[in-house]
Each structure stands twice: as C-alpha cells, then as structure tokens.
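If you are new to this repository, start here. Below is one unmodified record pulled from the training split, so you can see the exact layout before writing a loader.
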Amino acid sequence: MRTISCFLLALLLVGPAAAETVASFRGITEPARDLSLGVPVDGIVRDVPVKEGDSVKAGAPLLRLDARLEELEVKRRQILRDDGARLEATRQRRDILEGLLNSARSLYKGSGSISETELRRTELEYLEAAAAVRSLEADRARSGVEYDIAKSDFDRRTVTSPINGVVVSVMVDTGERVRRDDAVVRVVDQSICIFTVNVEEPFARAIKLGDKGRVEVMSGEQVIPVEARVTFVSPVADPASGLVKMKLEFANPDGRVRPGLPGRIALQRPDGPPADKPE
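And here is the target side for that same chain:
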C-alpha cells in the first residue's frame, strides 16, 4: 500500500506494535477567522441589532453609532449635488448666445449690417456664459465629491460584519460612549478551523505543506476525528523549547467541533520504518 508521505497517523488507530514508532503531540483548535471589531470613530451607541449567538452574513449591521447630524449632512449634500436647475439654465443661455454669435459673425462678414462693437459685445456675452457653465460644472463635480465624503462619514458610524459567522460577544450597550478602535463586537467563523500544535524539530522537518492527516479533537470523554491539511510549518524553532509551530486546517461546516477544544495528532518518528496503514 502507498506510504503516507506526511507521516500523520491517527493516534487511536496506532496499535501497540507501532507505539514505539510514533509520538503524540497535543495542540488547540481555533476558528480560522476570529474577529474583534472596533468602531472607526468616537461616538455614542444608538443601536445594537445583534445579540450573542446570532448568525450573521457578511455586510450585516452589528452596531450603529448616533449619526443624526451626519445623516442631515448627507441629505444636504445630496440636494446640492442633484440640484442642476441653475446649471441647466446657464447651459441654455450659453447655447442661445452661441447661436446669436454665429449669426452675428455671418452678418458682419456678409452684409455688414451689424457693427464690430455689437459683434464684440455678443462674443463677450457668450464667453461669460461659457465660463459660467464651466464654473457650475466644477461646482457640481465638487458637490459630488463632498456628498461621497459625507456619505462615507455617515457609513463609518455603522459597524458591519466582514464575514459570515456567529456573534460570540457584544461588549457595549445602547447609550454607551465608545472611542475609536474600541472593540465592540466579536464575530467568529467556525466553518473552518485551525489546529495549532508545537512539534519536535525532526518531526516538523518531515512534514510538507499540503500533507493530510487526522486530528483527534477531545470533547470531555468524546474523541472527534477530523481530516486536516497542513497549512503552515514554521521556518524557525522556539529557542526556549526547540519546538516548531505547525498548523492544520479542517472543515467544520456542521459545527461539530467547538473551536478552543484541545486536540492531538500522532506523527511517525522520522527514523522509524515507513507506515502504510496503522494496524
């Protein structure tokens, strides 16, 4: 049978005859994504629409700060951005003057029925109208930017979840004052977990990224076996213990494993005989 390339063996499946060729290492499970979310600005909590244990989708609101002034500013900026009446009227005046100017030029060059002074006056009026249009267009573009800034400032007063997960902790309540970067809500995605373990350096040397094996998670007297994949082997050893940190990732879609539980893994000794399948 094919040799297990990564030397990962299930501890409970190792029989007495193979006990001397393997070593067991204990570690801890943790969620792949465990986020303590903070507020980006100072403020007073207006609303906390979630509670501990709630499942949330990415983008769901978790906490809102009082934003009444910011909301009014957004509305004001929106009105200024969308008010195009003055610009439209100025554009129409410019277009009319442009037509008059073209007619005046034709008359001046053809029949000479208008004076040069009248032509220059019409040209000046057209240029002033064209400049007014450019100024109003710049004002409108600036109003759009100012609206975006106001909207961004308003949106910053709502903390949203960046992931699908479960709310495991709410640190504040309605009416409390919070400061910038204060942690307010903790969200965990337990659908993918990480098993972190420190192993002796000779064992770590024999393991490659992507190797697969079985981790046994311990829940009281119950042992929960999971198939895991190596995602990290530290390139350095801890100077105090000589151990090397290793991480294995495993799927946990049904929440069978509660992150934080201890686990163990059995590794074949590098100088031991190759193992096809434990007895």
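Two things worth knowing about this chain: The CA atoms of residues 55 and 166 lie 4 Å apart. Confidence is low (pLDDT under 50) at residues 1-18, 274-279.
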